[in-house]
Recover the amino acids of this structure.
């Protein structure tokens, strides 16, 4: 998804508004796969800022994810923010700490890397369909949101810390 930036190259302060669909079907982050059944939408402004072009705006996507606890699919809206510098050569002094850099190929800018990067950081590492999701029983595999089982809790979920009684024997912290 490329843009011809030549209309604003001649004039400092000139801007170009862009609003289009992003041809991106999914993004994988670690074990998480965010699927876009509808193409994400990018809305950005490209501004000629003297030495470089500045690209700012948003990319919004309705993602389908799988709950990391119970594996149930669910929908999540991702709102990515784009704040980047665009130039032919990356000069780190031209951009702020939070700004990314994207290359200009002649007078052509590819918006896809900026859109993908802005969405990527919004994909949760361990998505949950509900903060209260009880997940799947590790012993029998039943979905604990819908069913219950009589499996014994696994050892690591044991609430009592074997060292907690030792703490009572220690002097208070401020001593
Ligand atoms: Zn869940
Ligand atoms: Zn069980």
């Amino acid at each position: 998804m490329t843009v011809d930036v030549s209309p604003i190259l001649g004039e400092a302060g000139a801007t170009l508004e862009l609003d289009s669909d992003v041809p991106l079907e999914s993004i994988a982050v670690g074990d998480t796969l965010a699927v876009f059944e509808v193409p994400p939408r990018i809305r950005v402004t490209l501004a000629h800022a003297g030495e470089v072009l500045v690209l700012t705006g948003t990319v919004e996507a309705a993602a389908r994810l799988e709950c990391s606890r119970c594996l149930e699919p669910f929908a999540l809206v991702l709102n990515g923010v784009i704040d980047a510098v665009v130039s032919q050569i990356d000069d780190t002094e031209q951009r702020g700490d939070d700004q990314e850099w994207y290359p200009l190929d002649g007078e052509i800018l590819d918006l896809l890397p900026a859109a993908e990067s802005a969405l990527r950081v919004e994909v949760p590492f361990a998505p949950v369909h509900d903060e209260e999701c009880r997940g799947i029983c590790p012993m029998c595999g039943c979905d604990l949101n819908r069913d219950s089982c009589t499996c014994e809790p696994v050892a690591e979920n044991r609430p009592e810390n074997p060292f907690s009684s030792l703490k009572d024997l220690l002097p208070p912290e401020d001593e």
Notes: The longest strand covers residues 52-66. The chain has a mean pLDDT of 89. Residues 112-120 form the longest helix (9 residues). The radius of gyration is 24 Å.
